[in-house]
């Protein structure tokens, strides 16, 4: 209200009047970009460099908010672009914090030092690196900022970027000559800090440029103390503040500045504000929106002492408390209380650490990767595929005092019991093996009962689209794989039998002496729909399920007996009533294993059949894939088998289809059809291009 302000000034109101935090009218006008009122105040003698109690000038507030014209006005009235608050922050530091490049350009043109240091030794480049402001970093480097500048504890901008997990910032600093081998006062390189906090992409970048002599082996048991630059802890005056009573504690005591690492040292529960922008989802949202007066009070030393004693020291954690149920982006902290954390970027991923399972506080990292990002993706055999993205975990090798659970949504179609989900793990990122920890119902319920109330358990999503991984340690990667269901039994020299739960007639009988030692034997039976066979090969060809004996390419000491149901045609049952002589029935075999493509051979001539109750039995001394085909043209049996098999091994997925439409002319419109698995509809470019969703599958 410029007219009211002018009237008050005409009637003798002082332009230097302050609120209890030391803010003058010019501070408020600068923050709110009220150019007319600011100009009037300056004409009536308001000082452009007047300080608040914490030493901040109107230029600090204008710079932080990104007001270019206001900044220029204040500088024209002799505001000092290098003015330092009591904690050493200059207007350029606050520009760097908020990525206000346009205002920073004005400040630098008017003499602002690009390497000005706070009391703790932070330059604007440190601040921009900490808060991930890429544009500001490029601007400061172009203006000659020192990429090797160190704080009072020896941190360079590269250390700050590595600590916060900003991989793009790390790459930019390295490209600008930042020294990767510089160590802090405690002997830490940027690489060792990233390893400690589990920032995998940053670690991979720094590994290639940090000299081995400077690579310190990281002990995950040792707690890392976060260090952060100073911030403006001063509370801006609000309309609801009571100016009547003076806070003697604040007016008589010197103003206390808290850097973020000091707040961290008090424990997570000791202060109701969190300016580190840590990845804890909404857990601190209520605290961060506390009334300004409450934050003012919190900063006072006396209140800190009371709050610290009220919430208890972090070493005396109440184990009986229920674990935290919060969201996370890439990582989160977990301690003896445990926690149930759900990923925010991809809904459904949840890490459940029951109480007393973490031996010490640790930062758990959990994120999705696409398999082409890995140098050594999981080896997938025919008929297998990833049912979810690769899950990257950290700290790699971390061990727990009992099972923890990871819930991963998948988009594999299991077709009833025909297919299954298996988990592969890689401890070193190079070799993969099956994760054998069985997530049986008792173990799952034990974890849920320790982590949730009874009412919460009944409300949990328990759909077939989620797989549960139980583990007592963290590998580097987990892979969720869909494959044809495999019955696995341990068979020894005494022999035994394995039968399929998908096609009960499929059996493998191992006589005594077929194996010399006990091994795990797998049996797969993949049904082939009669409709698919008829579509590709016509009604004159029928096939049985494809039967596979694992491990592949193993020679048995005695022949084993396989039983497979007779081929079924698409119309009127079997083509032939088989007896001792069945010239059209062919036995096809593929002995290739691993990721090698199947190569079908006709082995009918060397394999005698036995017909029992609509089934065919035969013996074999090797483990392989077997398939029965009934066809008139027996010469083309292997060719037809290859063609049909190529279609049959396509992996089924659960997907949804979404149709978007947009009218681009009076008589013209565009349609876009999407097939989605794990993506969200509101993430698509079509929403930004103003397409309308007109249809979608259920």
UniProtKB/TrEMBL annotation:
Residue ranges of every copy of the ZU5 domain listed in the record: 328-483, 485-632
Signal sequence region: none
Pfam families named in the record: Ank, Ank_2, Ank_5, UPA_2, ZU5
InterPro entries: Ankyrin_rpt, Ankyrin_rpt-contain_sf, Ankyrin_UPA, Multifunctional_ANK_Repeat, ZU5_dom
ANK repeat feature ranges: 21-53, 54-86, 87-119, 120-152, 153-185
PROSITE patterns xref list: ANK_REP_REGION, ANK_REPEAT, ZU5
Subcellular location: Cytoplasm; Membrane
Chief place where the protein resides: cytoplasm
Keywords from the named record: ANK repeat, Cytoplasm, Membrane, Repeat
Start-end of Basic and acidic residues biased regions: 275-285
Region listing for Disordered, in residue ranges: 269-295
Keyword Cytoplasm: yes
Keyword Lipid biosynthesis: no
Highest taxon above the source species: Eukaryota
Alphabetical list of SUPFAM superfamilies matching this protein: Ankyrin repeat (SSF48403)
PANTHER family: ANKYRIN 2, ISOFORM U, ANKYRIN REPEAT-CONTAINING
UniProt name for this protein: ZU5 domain-containing protein
């Amino acid at each position: 209200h410029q007219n009211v302000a002018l009237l008050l000034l005409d009637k003798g109101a002082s332009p230097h009047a302050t609120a209890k935090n030391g803010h003058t009218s010019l501070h408020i006008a600068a923050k709110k970009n009220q150019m007319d009122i600011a100009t009037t105040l300056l004409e009536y003698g308001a000082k452009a460099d007047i300080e608040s109690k914490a030493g901040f000038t109107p230029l600090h507030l204008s710079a932080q908010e990104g007001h270019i014209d206001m900044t220029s006005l204040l500088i024209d009235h002799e505001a000092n672009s290098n003015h330092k608050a009591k904690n050493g922050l200059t207007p350029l530091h606050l520009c760097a914090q908020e990525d206000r490049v346009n205002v920073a350009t004005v400040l630098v043109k008017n003499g602002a030092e690009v390497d000005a240091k706070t009391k703790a030794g932070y330059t604007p480049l440190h601040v921009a690196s900490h808060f991930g402001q890429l544009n500001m970093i490029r601007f400061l480097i172009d203006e000659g900022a020192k990429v090797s500048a160190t704080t009072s504890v020896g941190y360079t901008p590269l250390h700050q970027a590595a600590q916060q997990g900003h991989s793009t910032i790390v790459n930019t600093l390295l490209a600008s000559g930042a020294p990767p081998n510089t160590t802090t006062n405690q002997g830490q390189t940027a690489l060792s800090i990233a390893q400690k906090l589990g920032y995998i992409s940053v670690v991979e970048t720094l590994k290639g440029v940090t000299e081995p002599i400077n690579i310190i082996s990281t002990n995950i048991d040792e707690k890392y103390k976060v260090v952060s630059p100073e911030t403006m802890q001063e509370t801006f005056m609000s309309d609801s503040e009571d100016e009547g009573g003076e806070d003697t504690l604040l007016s008589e005591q010197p103003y206390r500045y808290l850097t973020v690492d000091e707040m961290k040292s008090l424990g997570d529960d000791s202060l109701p504000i969190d300016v580190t922008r840590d990845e804890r989802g909404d857990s601190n949202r209520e605290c961060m929106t506390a009334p300004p007066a409450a934050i003012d009070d919190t900063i006072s030393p006396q209140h800190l002492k009371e709050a610290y004693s009220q919430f208890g020291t972090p070493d005396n954690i109440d184990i009986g408390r229920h674990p935290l149920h919060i969201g996370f982006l890439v990582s989160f902290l977990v301690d003896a209380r445990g926690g149930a954390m759900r990923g925010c970027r991809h809904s459904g991923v949840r890490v459940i650490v029951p109480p007393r399972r973490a031996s010490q506080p640790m930062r758990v990292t959990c994120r999705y990767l696409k398999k082409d990002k890995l140098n050594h993706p999981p080896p997938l055999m025919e008929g297998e595929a990833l049912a979810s993205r690769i899950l990257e975990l950290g700290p790699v090798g971390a061990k727990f005092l009992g099972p923890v659970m990871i819930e991963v949504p998948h988009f594999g179609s299991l077709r009833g019991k025909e297919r299954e989900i298996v988990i592969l793990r890689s401890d070193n990122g190079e070799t993969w093996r099956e994760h054998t920890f069985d997530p049986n119902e008792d173990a799952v319920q034990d974890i849920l009962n320790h982590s949730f109330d009874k009412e919460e358990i009944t409300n949990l999503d328990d759909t077939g689209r989620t797989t549960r991984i139980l583990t007592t340690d963290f590998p580097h990667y987990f892979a969720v794989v869909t494959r044809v269901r495999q019955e696995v039994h341990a068979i020894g020299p005494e022999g035994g039998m394995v039968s399929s739960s998908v096609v009960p007639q499929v059996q493998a009988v191992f006589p005594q002496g077929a194996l010399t030692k006990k091994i795990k034997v797998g049996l797969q039976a993949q049904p082939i729909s009669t409709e698919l066979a008829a579509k590709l090969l016509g009604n004159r060809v029928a096939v049985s399920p494809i039967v596979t004996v694992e491990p592949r390419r193993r020679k048995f000491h005695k022949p084993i007996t396989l039983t497979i149901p007779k081929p079924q045609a698409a119309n009127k049952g079997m083509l032939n009533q088989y007896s001792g002589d069945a010239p059209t029935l062919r036995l096809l075999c593929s002995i290739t294993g691993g990721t090698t493509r199947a190569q079908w051979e006709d082995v009918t001539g060397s394999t005698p059949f036995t017909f029992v109750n609509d089934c065919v039995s035969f013996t074999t001394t090797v483990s392989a894939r077997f398939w029965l085909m009934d066809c008139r043209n027996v010469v083309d049996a292997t060719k037809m088998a290859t063609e049909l098999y190529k279609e049959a091994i396509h992996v089924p997925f659960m997907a949804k289809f979404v149709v978007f439409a947009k009218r681009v002319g009076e008589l013209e419109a565009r349609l876009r059809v999407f097939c989605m698995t794990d993506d969200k509809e509101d993430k698509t470019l079509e929403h930004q291009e103003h397409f309308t969703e007109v249809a979608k599958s259920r």
